Records
---
Amino acid sequence: MDYRTVLTTCAYCGCGCGLYLEVLDGRVVNTIPCKTTPVNEGKLCVKGWNIHEFIHSPNRLTRPLIRKNGALTEASWEEALDYTAGRLWEIKEKHGSDSLAFLASAKVTNEENYLIQKFARAAVGTNNVDHCARL
Amino acid sequence: MTTKRIAVMKQLLAFTGIEQDRLQLEWVSAAEGPKFAQAITEFTNLIKALGPSRLKVAA
Amino acid sequence: MNEKVKAKVKELLASGRIKGFWGLRTMQGNIGPFLFSSPDDLDELVVGDRERPGDTRYPLNKLLVNLARCYPEEVFGVLVRGCDERGLKTLYSWNQLNPEKVVPVGIACPQELAEACECLKPFPDEFVAGEKAEGSEFVSVANVESLSLESRLEHWLDQFAKCIKCYGCRDICPVCFCKECTLEKDDFIHTGDLPPENPIFHLTRAVHMAGRCIDCGLCNEACPADIPLRTLYKKVADIIDEEFHYRPGYGDPKEKSPLNILGEAPKH
């Protein structure tokens, strides 16, 4: 039996509520709001309360997928990155930088979010940057 | 079980500000037509006397 | 208080009497629930009095129930206050826990907490630390009862209207163990409504707390909208006591809730 409570931060929005994930035998089984984190003081919203559910969801993407002839097919990272870079370049050349937009995520680190906006602004040349957590 | 639950519910309604007479429990068999009619008539009169529910006014 | 609990838990763990102990621990500057499995880990054990007594209580019973479902043969220890012990007894009586597999380690709450909680019995039957405080009356219930019928409705509608439907009151509740919940069934509740149907949503939950609520107040603490749920459920407990002379968790755990057995009809 391997049971742990792991303190972490809710990844759903920008509030940053503190919560404990209960991990039993390597699987995340439950969420408990942390009473001592000043942001939420033991409270959560309905999304936070259920945040453990997406972790083991079978619907999660585990490999890069490229749509070929209308069907999503598994691809290597190499192929996926080459394809994405190629298409971004193509679209930028043809329609201009502002025809592209970048959507960041609450489920990655601050540093990664910084990188994506830097990439959008400096490398691609657009201010079209948005975030899934703009509540 | 139902009598128990109704007894609890009536008091809970009173605590939350709803007249408990708005909830009534009556046992009527399918063979007791007149009793059913009487129960409904009495209940309708009671509700009319109480007037519209403040819950409805609030909504 | 911490030291006495630590000594007791150390003894239980060292003797092999329990597989693990459900307590609270300081972790990265925060206090959270923790399953202690070795006598060497106990340095950081706390009882949940961070700035004020009892300000960091967690539903340890609920975590215990979930773990016991996966490991029904193991014996676990658990930190209990008066309310937690009532929770354990209620869970025994609803067959959610096997009393033979649970070793409670009790602490008594100080007077300050007993009064803040309006707790009738702020101590478990047996405790290793703390001193017996006086039970406190349900002042909050009396306050609502002093209002006219009209003001009561206004009060509760205003309170319930704040609900953001996080289901936190249910999720944190140590005695909410149903696999299927009425509050998620379209037949009873318009599940898509936000705020939830007022007052049906909260009255439904209140009815389901009848004969179960042990007055721990964790729902109140978990509510992001500060709805005084504890007051509502205190009243429900009062009603059950008045009608059936039963208060969940205060008597013998073999005694069933009047809403769990047919029993005698209410006197009213």
Note: Chain A touches chain C through 25 residues (CB under 8 Å).
---
Amino acid sequence: MRKYISFFRLRFSTGLQYRSAALAGIVTQFIWGAMEILVFRAFYKADASAFPMELHALSSYIWMQQAFLALYMTWFLENEIFDSIKNGNISYELCRPINIYNMWFVRSVANRLSRAVLRCMPILIFASFLPAPFGLSLPKDLNSFLWFLITMLLGFLVVVAFCMLIYIVTFFTISPQGVRMVAVSMIELFAGSVIPLPFLPDGIRQVFELLPFASMQNVPLRIYSSDIAGKVIYTSAGLQLFWLITLILVGKMLTNKALKKVEIQGG
Amino acid sequence: MRVYSRYFSIHFKSVMQYKTSFLLTTIGQFLVSFNVFLGIYFMFMRFNKVEGFTYSEVLLCFSIVLMSYSFAECFGRGFDTFSSIISNGEFDRIMVRPRGEILQVLGSKIEFTRIGRILQALVMFIYGISQSNVSWNFDKILTIIFMIVGGTVLFTGIFIIYAALCFFTIEGLEFMNIFTDGAREYGKYPISIYGKRVLQICTFIVPFALIQYYPLLFLIDRNRNRWNMFLPLVACIFIIPCYKLWKIGIKHYKSTGS
């Protein structure tokens, strides 16, 4: 356990070094969020009755999404891992007395967390000063805030567990290009980062909500904006836990299978 | 021009060496922007109109922006990856050759896989047209061509700015994404829906609205003023300051030495 913790600390502090990049990123994300809210405002003006969420809830959803983007974006994959599989450097890592799945998992968690820590505060502070329906508002009560924190952690781990699958599949396909592109672009839609899931038409929405992708950012962001409340919170959190365990088990199984007949790419 | 067509054929031949990989990446490119379309589709299942624009009109708008962006990306990809040309010292080599720098950077990379995106834009374009009830005449066909040409030039200009800034910073700048990926992403809706302020910025500072919003109004007969037709050509002027910035950048250039 200790080696993973120190590995985490190492990665985490490396990630914190990129401060000027983070500043540029914050500006970008802020404008991105503002544009997103303007789009939804236009739709809200067009037909408020067809709007499935409150406008201020939606604004909170989007600001939280931008602030914690680094935790939830599935396209933020580590090229180093892909490269190590492709050019054979993975053989060094396999020699070490550590579990490769756990190490990559810790590494992804640390990388994402350091990025999010650097970026989230300015966006959150700035957004909470914006005028009423467009700014970031506080959650309804303490209870939903606590559940927001819990589900945020679960959702984050689901994202990492899913990205692990993409890395592992690369063992079999060698070139990550195809898998990466298709998987990542479809997940964006399923997870609710193209449009929040409540905006999807009935029927499709219910199916999407059961998929593992809905257990990523969808649940915590909607609990924060009080769009999910009451008993649904518990079932969503339960579903998150279920997917987290399933994804980790599948990931571990696939890793073992891949490592049994691993072929090191020379060079 | 002759040199560029040589570059073109070389890149084409090299891509064709890996036909399956080319095919897969093209399909991937197709899918990547497909979820943007699905986003629009699902939103319009719920709402009939936004700011008075219907589904098919938004689709038309989206496809034109996507198409001009993909054209610009296909040919101007060299500028997009320019930070690596600078940081690995490749640019020193470019400067000593007796040809224009811009031409060589353009020729350094031509991304044929963007055909996936162009194809998608085309499908959406045809779908948008068949759904819409635009009454076609010569003027309107010309308008569409102007829009695509103007858009391609505009996006190329932005790519040039992106590259020119690399002379000063060595690295690519993340906030420029707002003008490249962001413009593509948010250009899917007519700019007026973002409100007056954004429309003003996109008219006078970075002329996105000139290639998108105003000519679109002319296309769908909301504004019959024929001046709107030629606005995309006005937007092409934008490339002049971009070129100037590039020139300043070259003067300022110091080799990274590697």
Note: The longest strand of chain B covers residues 49-50.
---
Amino acid sequence: MNTQTAKKTKEVINKTERITGSEAIIKCLIAEGVDILYGYPGGAIMPVYDELYKYQDKIHHVLTRHEQGATHAAQGYARISGKVGVAMATSGPGATNLVTGIADAQIDSTPMVCITGQVFSHLLGSDAFQETDIVGISTPVTKWNHQVTKASEIPEVLAKAFYIAKSGRPGPVLIDITKDAQVSELDFEYKKCTGIRSYIPVPKTNPDKVKAAAELINSAKKPMIVWGQGVILGQAENELKAVIEKAGIPSAWTILGASAIPTSHPLNIGMVGMHGNYAPNKLTNECDVLIAIGMRFDDRVTGSLNTYAKQAKIIHFDIDPAEIDKNVKTDVAVIGDSKDSLAKLLPLLKETSHDSWLKEFKDLYAIEFEKVIKDDITPTKEGLTMGEVIRQINIETKGNAAIVSDVGQHQMIACRYADFNITKSNITSGGLGTMGFALPAAIGAKMAAPEREVVAIIGDGGYQMTIQELGTIFQQKVPVKIVVLNNEFLGMVRQWQQLFFDKRYASTEMTNPNFVAIAEGYYIKARKVVKREELAEAVKEMIASKDSYFLEVCVEKEGNVFPMIPSGASVSDVRLS
Amino acid sequence: MNEDIKTFTISIYTENNIGLLNRISAIFQRRHINIESLTTSQSEIEGVNRFVIVVNITEEQAKKIVGQFEKQIEVIRAFYHTDEETIYQESCMFKIKSNLLFEEPQIQNIIKESNTRIVTVNKEFFVLEKSGRRNEIESLRRDLNVFGIMQFVRSGRIAVTKDEMKVTEMLLAFNNQ
């Protein structure tokens, strides 16, 4: 570790004392404000767990039932609170089981620190028991990683880990600590990291670029905003709202941007992307200025790049310079923190409204409502729909719940139809599309924000990928509400098979167990709904429950999610059926 | 931006840390970019390493990949340059049977004309070293190949840029914060 690279500060949290590396790890976590961490013990991390035992009044360790669950719980914790989530595991299989969650956090910019135990440093490279090169394995999916082989390095490396995880564009950091570094002693002194010379987390906003952006926006006849998670991560919700309202711009969101502006806001025109709303997708190719804020033009958002908003001038606000011109060429790029950039933009904007332009969105919404939404959320035909379940949850929670969704059809339906009044309320695996994310992520979210109603909405496929975390919910008494929308299919894959593979349903049909019995096996209150008449009452009972509650809703087997932009098609070719 | 595939020299200034090479090579691998050559050494700044990597890609790819390098925590700055914007050299060594030096007078002429340096001579073999452009080294290799080469090795490209590299300024700015 090169000690010159991290800036020294005068703020000394602890006076020097002689302690073990393991105790130092715990003290570092406490100094960073960690109150809860998720993990699973094993040989190479046992000294740290021994210290956790002594510090259990200060720091709460949650034993998940699988290390993947620990990472997703840490992600859920981070996404709802904005704080760094922490996961811990032993070496070898413990460490490799973290990788999916780390990759998920990397692509969704979630601040997370993972601590893994490692074999004694003299055994490194000897194929020792439970030795694996987790630093090598995790390199492409971490913002930073590092192996510690000396106890004396622990405070500085962990300080850097937290600083890197949460600063700039957040991301996961993995610190691998050999067992000898855990058991040997050091003179402990903790200084928070405040800067690293090779790392510029927040590039300074260039006022000329903000001015150029403002001029384009002021001259636009048909401006449209697409915001992403950058607004939430940058805590720029109020600034965005002020910009939208002053310039009267119809504004859409990416899946991870959901909830930054309330669903009910008159200028909120819905979600863009493969299963987003009809109007914002269609009109992406009609607007004259497209203002992208804290989003990265993911292929699920843009469809074919060759036909994406070619008529429009593009303004891109982002904190990460590598995102500029990566997928879509911009006319004006404003690199910097979203809160700061939008605050600087606001006074330069003319007060405007674009009523006839906004009406185009409303008109297309009316078409989408008639052809898709009405039958999704208030169906009259037999067979429960996913959409009507979300609608009931909206009614019972008044749009104040945090919705944690998994991956697939139910996820798209939840993001499309859930009402969001409060920011940081849509917790889902966006970029990586990790099935199994929701159940453990809901645990982390509920523990970080016990005052919030947290509802996990999961498909029958994804649920069975991390179903073991029911054990964590039971042991920790986490009052999350779990809704499984059971169509006895891997629904999204089945939908593609129906539309693009001539209904050849290869390995997508599922013979499911008795989910209610499984939940009850973990002493979680459980109920199954098969009829429409039972739904409202069941959702009401679930939301009213003070304890965790499992609700299985048997929905129609072959329901499809529309609108849909077929893979590789243009956003304006969005289909309603 | 020009879409033609060209040779670019990528210079990456980094902290001297284990694992950084892995991080950098993973960025190439993920995008299916073949590395023509890679050299790493101390740079002009104490404690700062410099990677010099040669790749054949489009300028658009070069720009994007440099963005990915700069995103790495321990990368201080990264740049891409065309051949015209750099002064570059490679170095090579030849091991040849000693008797040829005396039996084939032509070899001595080749050594003299190409400004090749004799590093060592002993009873069994002698070793030649030359620095220069790839074509000079290739032509020397072809000339010597006729007589039989026991071993040949060529280094990756090393290059300095005609433009100033503003890395020191960036580090000073950090220290003065």
Note: Chain A has three domains: 17-188, 207-361, 386-554.
